[in-house]
Design a protein that fits this description.
Chain B: Keywords: Cell membrane, Membrane, Transmembrane, Transmembrane helix, Transport. The complex is a heterodimer of chains A (287) and B (279). Chain A is built from 13 helices and two strands. Chain A has 287 residues and is mainly α. The longest helix of chain A has 33 residues. Classes of the chains: A mainly alpha (287), B mainly alpha (279).
């Protein structure tokens, strides 16, 4: 066991040090910061940081706009994630069904939007949506895609456009790894294309679907680039539109202690949701 | 026979519709980038006329002392540098976790795996405060150093190393008198090459797309990556209408390197992407 201690040290240490510096310490630092508060002596006196315990967290839990933003990304996630992953799964199954010619082309064409950074995708779609900028006036004249009631779904379309192909590829690669003997057995049993997809393929790629779901949940809670860019296109997107925008605008005040508390709550929510989903699917898998 | 072909036609039709959905916006961006005198909304949205991409490009590259090219160079420096070095470090760590049995191995792996779930944006603010303390906020390093860390790369590295580097081979190398580190660099890295490309690609995309970290860290325009630069232009179009066309041309140029990388590394990501999901 001790035989290769120096080699192990050599392999693990560089990553380990950076991980500690730029992942672990910032997390503890954020928790630490969130427990402090600014005290002033008099109205214009010097500000000093004093330990405040859970003062910031009381503020977090009574902060209306923050919880509205949480509600908003929940609504977004409940609709957008199933639509995106459903389409990704559907397209992966089609690619794998043997019905499609030119698979290489479609795989590339669908994956290409993933090469577009979120900021750039949001700028591009923002132009396409804007009534006075869009070339597609027939669409933008009949519905204001940037109005308060629409803009969340306009953003959902941007995210969906970028990530369908990426998720499709992950699921498709998992489909390719399924041993073909299983399909032959199903064929002999008289299972058609749909039956094979439903009863064999989807259960076989469930781990891939779980993985993409967890990544999508994390991504949804972290929504930032799209709403931040859309603030230039639509007045309906406020500075507290998503939880991350709230963190950003709070730290710009600057109120770092409250912003840190927001970050901590957000990170915890992400952890709890991802783990809950993983546990839930694992339990289902056992049955 | 005709009824037999129906599913095939249906499937191809679905594929065609989605191809339009995915590619039309990109095609529009290309056409709009070539509109004469930046009249992005003039003429047909999907047919190039008076195509003058060259003129628009030279305008883009000259604007504000060539700040756009500077942003592109910054993005490449942040991204290529961080992804190359980060992939090596993550690969080494994942390799050690796969190929050696030592105390604390599973603990390290679980902590790193937990790191995958940490929202990167929850790190940006404390990182800014830390870098400010050592007076490194608003420098190249403030974006570069945190970008080196890729916990998902360690996870993939471990899976790939376990699958592609046989223990017997390492044992044989030991008998031949090769040291562990030398074996890794001469033998294991070759076996893990497709894995390294996949980790590199994921890392490259993540850093290239990163927005919150540079947004929080950087105040100096000359240090911006191209995403942040385009964002800042886009927020100024009301005061500077000439930026409207430049934003679109710039957006088009900014995705070209990524598209080239995707096309040239195709055979790697096509086979490698799914490995993370295989248990």
């Amino acid at each position: 066991m001790k035989r290769h201690a120096s080699a192990i040290f050599f392999f693990v240490t560089p990553f380990g040090v950076l991980f500690a510096l730029f992942y672990l310490i910032p997390i503890f630092y954020a928790v630490w910061q969130s427990l402090y508060t600014v005290k002033r002596t008099g109205t214009f006196g010097p500000a000093t940081d004093v330990f405040g315990g859970f003062v910031q967290y009381r503020e977090v839990f009574t902060n209306g706009p923050f919880w509205e933003s949480i509600e908003r990304v929940f609504l977004f996630g409940i609709v957008q994630v199933p639509v995106m992953l459903g389409l990704a799964l559907f397209l992966a199954l089609l690619l794998d069904s043997g019905l499609v010619k030119g698979k290489g082309f479609f795989r590339l064409a669908f994956f290409l939007p993933y090469a577009v950074p979120g900021v750039v995708a949001a700028i591009m779609w923002g132009y396409l949506y804007s009534p006075n900028l869009s070339p597609f006036t027939a669409v933008t004249a009949s519905a204001d895609l940037l109005s308060p009631s629409f803009v969340l779904w306009a953003m959902a379309n941007v995210v969906t456009w970028v990530y369908i192909g990426y998720n499709m590829l992950i699921i498709y690669s998992a489909l390719l790894a399924v041993p073909t003997e299983i399909y032959e057995a199903a064929k002999i049993d008289g299972a058609g294309v749909f039956r094979t997809a439903w009863s064999i393929k989807i259960p076989m790629v469930l781990p891939a679907i779980v993985l993409t779901t967890v990544f999508s949940i994390i991504g949804t809670l972290q929504l930032l680039a799209e709403p931040q860019v859309f603030r230039s296109f639509s007045s309906a997107v406020s500075s507290t539109y998503t939880p991350n925008l709230t963190v950003l605008s709070t730290s710009a005040v600057p109120n770092f202690h409250l912003a840190a508390a927001f970050s901590v709550v957000l990170a915890l929510a992400t952890f709890i949701l991802s783990f809950a989903f993983l546990k839930f699917t694992q339990r289902k898998g056992v049955q | 026979m005709a009824a037999f072909k129906l599913p095939k036609y249906g499937a191809m039709l679905v594929m065609a519709v989605f191809t339009l959905y995915f590619l039309t916006p990109l095609w529009w961006l290309f056409v709009a980038s070539g509109k004469k005198d930046g009249q992005v909304t003039e003429g047909s949205p999907l047919l190039p006329d008076h195509f003058s991409l060259g003129e628009n490009l030279s305008q883009l590259f000259r604007y504000n002392d060539g700040i756009f090219l500077r942003w592109m160079a910054n993005s490449i420096a942040y991204t290529v540098g961080a992804a190359l070095l980060g992939t090596l470090l993550a690969g080494m760590c994942g390799y050690a976790l796969a190929k050696y049995v030592f105390r604390g191995r599973e603990l390290i792996f679980n902590i790193v795996l937990g790191g995958v779930l940490v929202p990167a944006t929850a790190l940006a603010l404390p990182l800014f405060l830390m870098f400010s303390k050592v007076e490194l906020a608003n420098t190249f390093w403030a974006v570069f150093l945190p970008s080196l860390v890729n916990p998902f790369g360690v996870y993939l590295g471990r899976i790939y190393a376990a699958a592609s580097v046989p223990d017997e081979l390492l044992e044989a190398a030991r008998i031949d008198g090769s040291g562990e580190v030398r074996t890794f660099f001469t033998l294991s890295t070759r076996l893990m090459a497709p894995a390294f490309v996949t980790i590199f690609l994921f890392h490259f995309v993540a850093v290239w797309n990163n927005f919150m970290l540079p947004l929080i860290m950087l105040g100096n325009e000359r240090l911006f990556p191209v995403t942040l630069g385009l964002y800042s232009w886009n927020t100024q179009v009301n005061q500077h209408p000439e930026l409207r066309a430049l934003v679109l041309v710039g957006a088009f140029v900014s995705i070209v390197p990524m598209v080239i990388a995707f096309l040239s590394l195709q055979r790697f990501w096509r086979s490698g992407l799914g490995a993370g999901s295989i248990k």
